[in-house]
Amino acid sequence: MSGASGSAVGDVFDVVVVGGGAAGLNAALVLARARRRVVVVDAGEPRNAPAAHMQGFLSREGMSPAALLEVGRKEVAGYGVELIEGRVDHIDPGFFVHLDGGPVLKARRVLVATGLRDELPEIPGVRERWGKDLLHCPYCHGYEVRDQPVGVLGTHPGAVDQALLLRQWSGDVVYFPHTQELADEQRERLLARDVYIADGTVKWLVVEDDRLRGVELAEGAVVPRSAVFVFPRMVPRDALLSDLGCERDERGWVTTDAVGRTSMFGVWAVGNVADPRALVVTAAGKGAAAAFALNHDLVDEDVERAVEEYRAAATADPSAVR
């Protein structure tokens, strides 16, 4: 991947893709195969970087996220996509994409696939074990810890549902309410699902020999666990979309249609920046869907311009056109 200085100022791209994860790269791949001029700008901060493996992606089962991106970059580069390592500072109207410390890229359309960041609870051991044995997604990691002693930290309103779901993978699930007060109905549902409730405040995660051993409560008890799940607060990296004036829903997330089109002309958003539930395979598919729509949008514009030129030529010299 080239540095920010690799692209000449003044170049006009059909599409500038901001974010080189699965969504951005797959969009770039489809667009390049449609013979569009595409550049991908990536800051190198994938959300799933701490994870050693991906699951639930047909033909890529168990592959590392880093390996997927490496292969993806080689594939899109083979079709002529320019790859720039850098960060987009802001985008001016007319799609002048300003790189931080680099050139300004001119685009006809912009696709934002900048993902999100996970805000983790301030509990000692959580950040250190993140992506190892402190996990988030049951569909991504539940099978790997099946039938093991599993814990769920009650640090998010969605944690109770997470614990109820994880009972599907393990018969030994402990829910730690921590500072979240359980409603009577929630407590009843957990107990009915055979989820043990360890009341008390979580002090830290107990780690020995670089492995999670349990969860220690402030009251002194240690509950042995080999894996713990947490529901992080997901914060989209959507400042570029906000600055462009894209509309948001009641949750505060940028709204898109089924193919990633935002409320602003020429701006698409795909992957975790618009959908916190998108897995890697989902994000890649959304990138492809957006690329189809983007190309058709560009074709419509190309045809309109061609018609205008044809009519102008016919008016100037009717004998010059067929």
Q: Tell me the major beta sheet.
A: 8 strands, mixed
Task: Give the helices and strands as they follow along the chain.
Answer: EEHEHEEEEEHEHEHEHEEEEEEHEH
Number of strands: 18
What is the CATH architecture term of the largest domain?
Answer: 3-Layer(bba) Sandwich
CATH topology of the largest domain: FAD/NAD(P)-binding domain
Structural category is alpha/beta
Topology at a glance:
Layout: E1 2-3, E2 12-18, H1 22-33, E3 38-42, H2 65-78, E4 82-85, E5 88-92, E6 96-99, E7 104-112, E8 116-119, H3 126-129, E9 134-135, H4 138-141, E10 150-153, H5 159-166, E11 173-176, H6 184-192, E12 196-197, E13 202-208, E14 211-217, E15 222-224, E16 227-229, E17 233-236, H7 239-243, E18 267-269, H8 280-316
Helix pairs in contact: 1-2, 1-8
Transmembrane segments: 12-32
InterPro entries: FAD/NAD-bd_sf, FAD/NAD-binding_dom, Ferredoxin-NADP_redctase_2
Keywords: Flavoprotein, Membrane, Oxidoreductase, Transmembrane, Transmembrane helix
Tell me about this structure.
The protein is an alpha/beta fold. It has two domains: 197 residues, 3-Layer(bba) Sandwich (FAD/NAD(P)-binding domain); 109 residues, 3-Layer(bba) Sandwich (FAD/NAD(P)-binding domain). The strands form four sheets. Strands 1, 2, 3, 4, 5, 6, 7 and 18 form an eight-stranded mixed beta sheet that branches. Strands 9-16-10-11-12 form a five-stranded parallel beta sheet. The protein has a three-stranded antiparallel beta sheet with strand order 13-14-15, with no helix packed on it. About 2% of the residues have low confidence. The chain is elongated and about 90 Å long. Helix 6 links the parallel strand 11 and strand 12. The chain contains eight helices and 18 strands. It catalyses: [thioredoxin]-dithiol + NADP(+) = [thioredoxin]-disulfide + NADPH + H(+). GO terms for molecular function: thioredoxin-disulfide reductase (NADPH) activity. Keywords: Flavoprotein, Membrane, Oxidoreductase, Transmembrane, Transmembrane helix. Pfam families: Pyr_redox_2. This is NAD(P)/FAD-dependent oxidoreductase.
